[in-house]
Amino acid sequence: MMPGLEKQLRHEKHFRYISSHDVAYWSRSFMQDLERACKDHYSKRCWGIGFGLSFRILSLSPSFRKLSVDHIVSAYKKTKRRAIFLDYDGTVVPHASIVKTPTPEVISVLNNLCDDPNNTVFIVSGRGQTSLTEWFAQCENLGIAAEHGYFIRWSRTSNWETNPIATDFDWKRIAEPVMRSYTETTDGSYIEAKESALVWHHQDADPDFGSCQAKELLDHLENVLANDPVVVKRGQHIVEVKPQGVTKGLVAEKVLSSMISDRKLPDFVMCIGDDRSDEDMFESISTTAYKSSLPAAPEIFACTVGQKPSKARYYLDDTVDVVTLLQGLATASSIKSRFSTEIQVSFQNTA
């Protein structure tokens, strides 16, 4: 039996709460929440996505639209100094592809873009530097940011730079055993150990069970690593632990700031990606941090792959659309280069 004094104290506590949170209070709270949720309803467009139990409705801004090749090529031709940031998996190579290496078509279009002296082109990926170095060995002038920017290289002949923010990796001794336990109980999953991060992949596991395990693993890691300088995130079929302060957004900031310092003022900035990690880049290229050093605001094209809520203003449907768009830009550069050469030769012959 509960002592009488405790009964009285509990009653008084609950009575005070009920007295101040009556029906009128709950009605007002509900209406305020409803108004807040519907505030931008009529300024949004609604999209039905998926089938059956996976069906959902997404509310997107009317300004969110498919990026037209003609539109961006027109802007590209008018600009003189361009920065281009591209994610890898899910952007230039499909997630579902068994062969993860870039196709000859992708290598060719990247080289064509990099051959334009007015372009600064970067692949910004979560993959390790070894894979990216091998895959893009034919791209002499391509910049690469590996492991979300923990490593960065400006061209094939330059040395890799390491992010000085992340120096403590003791957290790996805690995170790896946790990931290993989930790997042992999830058929098809595996751990990828990078220099700066640990990634648990479940793409080859049962879709439903893998997704459920990923959510549990995320919660587990967030609890055991709560006091460590790391970030635990879910991505496309992955759960990743990486150091705080290492983001793709910082890569974009670093490249743009470097261009400004070298008096290569960008008037065209394009970023294409498909994952949550790419949202940092979309936000970064849209901030005013680097724009204050420019005489005029650059043309900005932040583009996500797939129709989904994003900080990007534009979308493309899939990797095929991405490569087609890049080919359009590369062709514009090639035509301009040939035209300039012909004028120069003509001038020399006349002289």
Could you explain the architecture of this structure?
This protein is α/β, with parallel strands linked by helices. It has helices at 4-20, 23-37, 69-78, 104-115, 129-135, 172-184, 207-224, 248-261, 279-286, 319-350, and strands spanning 45-49, 56-60, 65-66, 82-86, 119-124, 143-146, 151-153, 161-162, 190-193, 198-201, 230-235, 238-243, 268-273, 299-305, 314-316. The protein folds into two domains: 65-165 and 246-341, Rossmann fold, CATH 3.40.50.1000; 170-243, Hypothetical Protein Ta0175, Chain: A, domain 2 (Alpha-Beta Complex). The chain contains ten helices and 15 strands. The strands form three sheets. It has a nine-stranded mixed β-sheet with strand order 3-15-14-13-4-5-6-7-8, sandwiched between helices. Strands 9-10-12-11 form a four-stranded antiparallel β-sheet, with helices on one face. Helix 9 links the parallel strand 13 (268-273) and strand 14 (299-305). It is globular. Mean pLDDT is 86; it is low at 341-348. Its cofactor is a divalent metal cation. One of its GO terms (molecular function) is trehalose-phosphatase activity.
